[in-house]
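## retry 2 of 3
previous attempt timed out at serialization; input unchanged, resubmitting
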Amino acid sequence: MSRVFKRLYTVVGKVTFDNVKEQNVNGSAWVSSLDSAASDAEKTDPRIKHLKIQGAKAHQSHTDPNDPKPVISVQYLNDLMQRVRSEHVHEDGTTKSKTE
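## retry succeeded, writing output
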């Protein structure tokens, strides 16, 4: 029997999945990677309730110039809208903790 995981997090802020889809050549792949990263984060840390996408367009990391892959920066927020952690999400679904 397979289990279905219901997404509990909500996307907050000005940037939506639709914005990401529209602003990137492989927009659907980016949205899938963002959703997967947020779902994984939510499973590993029950404090995470919201996803805030920092910008719709994938870009070279400003905080990690050695990262060769384009990234979309995200914040994971708790129910009080306080940041729990930040990550860079890559198109291939890999993530990297963002150090600020």
